[in-house]
Write a structure and sequence with these properties.
By secondary structure, the protein is α/β, with parallel strands linked by helices. It has helices at residues 19-29, 48-65, 88-107, 122-126, 128-152, 172-181, 211-218, 242-245, 252-261, 285-304; strands at residues 2-8, 34-38, 68-73, 112-115, 156-159, 190-195, 224-227, 266-271. Helix 3 runs parallel beside helix 5 and helix 7 (211-218) packs parallel to helix 9 (252-261).
Length: 308
């Protein structure tokens, strides 16, 4: 296997807004070289001239530090209804936003771009006919985005299976069905960005909250996977630090063994860890990320060397 440890830049939002700062944390503090860049650090809604200047700055600093932006993703501030919004004009705006994001992603050197599939409003989700209509509209929207993204040079799109029906992909069966529907007529493949902490806790199928079951089902076709420590309460994007590792169910050696058994040849594991803007958590961000990297690094080195 060839497993890469990287990081989603959600940790930097509103903490390290300047590229030199977050790139320095990734490279100098954590010793990582692979990033999933989040839209909230450079929102495509911003003026194009400003985006072009900032893109040049990010690309140059990444080159200096040996950091590669492999994929891009939406994040906390862009975790909205977007292509499933009930207002057609707003859906159209978000389709155009994703086209701008595709252009930005490629300019940053990314090979893929992703998001949650879309989020249904409560009223649409409660009405089976409206729910079906919205999902069909969402598939058509992503098909249009895929056409544009392919023209920019991106190789694939991704959606992230979530944890409640309103956000889609909350079970293995629902994810499999939605992914299958996103293959017809797509100019570039729609793939998955798995998350080891997602899944519907109310599902009657225990596999739907078992990270290993999700990996066995989809990891072989997922270019990247979000990792964080997962507790019974599923209450947060917990770091891999001792106080959570003693209670958590994500064990590096076990996850890597499942990847190997699932036939994964290469994959990027992305730390997607969030700290609330509260003390003392806010002051622990970099230290917790360092401990998380050190928790994973030995296991990944052993797995890549073919050792158990």
């Amino acid at each position: 296997m060839n497993i890469t440890l990287g990081i989603n830049t959600g940790f930097a939002i509103n903490r390290f807004p300047e590229p030199a700062d977050w790139i320095g944390v990734v490279s100098d503090e954590l010793g990582l070289d692979t990033v999933q860049f989040t839209a909230d650090l450079l929102n495509p809604f911003l003026p194009e001239a400003l985006i072009a200047r900032e893109t040049d700055t990010i690309r140059n600093l990444c080159a200096q530090k040996g950091v590669r932006i492999e994929t891009t993703f939406t994040s906390a501030f862009t975790r909205v209804n977007h292509v499933l919004h009930p207002n057609e004009a707003i859906r159209r705006l978000w389709i155009d936003w994703f086209k701008r994001f595709a252009r930005l992603s490629r300019a940053l050197g990314a090979e893929g771009m992703g998001s949650h599939f879309g989020i249904l409003g409560v009223r649409d989700n409660a009405d089976p006919a409206r729910r079906a209509e919205r999902i069909e509209q969402g598939i058509a929207a992503w098909r249009e985005i895929a056409q544009f993204a392919g023209e920019t040079g991106l190789r694939y799109l991704m959606f992230e299976p979530m944890s409640i029906p309103r956000e889609l992909g909350e079970t293995i069966a629902e994810t499999r069905g939605l992914l299958a529907r996103c293959q017809d007529g797509f100019a570039i493949p729609m793939r998955l960005c798995l998350d080891v902490d997602h899944g519907d806790v109310t599902s009657a199928n225990p596999d739907d909250t078992d990270p290993h079951a999700w990996l066995r089902a989809f990891a072989k076709d997922s270019p990247c996977i979000h990792i964080k420590q997962s507790l019974r309460d599923k209450g947060g994007h917990y770091p891999f630090v001792s106080e959570y590792n003693t209670r958590g169910k994500i064990v590096p050696g076990e996850i890597l063994a499942t990847l190997r058994e699932s036939g994964v040849e290469s994959c990027t594991l992305l730390l997607e860890i969030s700290h609330r803007e509260r003390l003392p958590m806010d002051a622990r961000v970099v230290a917790d990320l360092k401990e998380s990297v050190e928790y994973w690094r030995p296991a990944i080195e052993r797995a890549n060397a073919g050792l158990s």
